[in-house]
Give the backbone structure.
Amino acid sequence: MDTKEILKQFEQVATYYIEELSKYSLDEFTRKPSEDEWSLGQMYNHLIKGTHYLHLKAIEQCANDTASDGGKKTEIGESIFKEGTFPSIRVKGPDTPDFTPPNPKGKEEVKEGLLQIIEKMRETERKLSDIPVSQKVQHRRMGYLNAEEYFQLIEMHFRHHLRQKERIDQFLLKVSK
C-alpha cells in the first residue's frame, strides 16, 4: 500500500476517534473498567503520546544519521507487516508510570492532540520518499523498521485500539443501565 493510501486510512480512523469524543462525559471518558485496565482517556493518550514520542520520532531518526543502515524485523514484526494488522490479542504492557498513560484533564486536550497528529502525518507523508528505505530504527518488539514502515505502523496502531475502544464502550453501556 502506498503512503497516500495509508495517510487516507489513518485520517479516517483518527477522525472517527475525534467524532466519538462527543459521545462521552468526562467521567465516562476517564472511567476504568477495572483497576488493571485503561480508561478511554488513557487509551487515547497512549495513541497520542506513542505516535508523537515513539513512531514519529523514529521516522525523524530514519531521516538522519542516528538510523542504522539495514537491520531485520523480528518474527512478530514480519508477521504484522505481512498481515497489515496487529494480531487480535490483548497486549498488557508493564504497569509502570512511564508506560501507563494518565487520564486526560479534558476531552479538548485529547481532540487537539489528535488534530496535531493528523497534521504531522500529512507533513510526514510528503517527506517519506526522501528517506532511504535502508535507514532503519529498532522497534522494541518488531525489530528494525524504516520510515515508511513506522508510518504504516501508526495507522495499524490506531486501528488495533479500536478493539479496546469497543470493549470499553461495552463496559460503559453496562454501567449506565
